[in-house]
Amino acid sequence: MLRKVITEGELGVVIGEAESGVKSLSPILSTHPDVVLIDLLMPELDGIETVAQLRTEGFRGQFIMISQIENKEMVGEAYEKGVEFFIHKPINRVEVYSVLKKTAEQFRLKNSLMEIRESLAHMEPSKMPQKQKSVKEIVLSILNDMGIIGEVGSDDIVSIMEVLMERTERVAQLPPLKDLYEEVARRSASPSNIKKECKAMEQRIRRTIQTAVNNLASLGTIDYANPEFEYYAPRFFDFQEIRNRMKYIKEGSSGPTKVKINSKKFLQVLYHETEDKYLQS
């Protein structure tokens, strides 16, 4: 089932499978996959023991654990051993897609950060640049925490934040979204296409926010104390909508569910978060 979801969703290439933790060790250490999806309950060597042994052997890939167990102590132990995310049983196509997409984005981001660190390591401390974080860097960091850095509307959201931050006075309340969309569209679209681009931008942003809801709801379903879930879910969204989505995922439904999207609230909170982090950097 996982192979089918991954293949049909073009989420990656499945390079191997194993019947147990013991039988997985050698193939994983020899092929070095980017991501390992691992069941918690397996014969001979369970998921947590397998992760621990692979880490001891030097494996540096990412782990996603598949489990029906919601014991907080066991979940906490799995995170400590190096598990990045959980997928809840019974397997839900929407959750698998969401978690794997977020994992891929984190993998790419970690590689980029590693390259930056390696470059800086060769510089003398006195010559290392000390500069304020850009608005784009701050916004992308927040979007990455919610798993939407690679979504189709992320660039639009960054552009809106840049427009707002360019204003000389603090924006207490956002102007009408229509005006914001038009201001951003004027920077790239021809006058005849501004109206069309505004509508497209609105839809891209709504789909991106919908993905954030799905991602956070998936995190909260597995671990209610997850730091990203605890911080972002109640601030950026109507928490009842998040709870509704969590219930939907927990019941194992695979189709879409209606979630009310408040784009203005999301952008308003994001603006204040961006402004605070920009002033502190």
From TrEMBL:
One Gene Ontology molecular-function label:
protein-glutamate methylesterase activity
Q: Which domain of life is it from?
A: Bacteria
Keywords tagged on the record: Hydrolase, Phosphoprotein
TM stretches of this protein: none
Domain called Response regulatory: residue spans: 1-104
Q: 4-aspartylphosphate modification sites?
A: 39
Which EC number(s) does UniProt give?
3.1.1.61
- Could you tell me which PROSITE patterns the record lists for this protein? RESPONSE_REGULATORY (PS50110)
GO annotation, biological process: phosphorelay signal transduction system
The name under which this protein is listed is: Two-component response regulator
The gene coding this protein? glnL
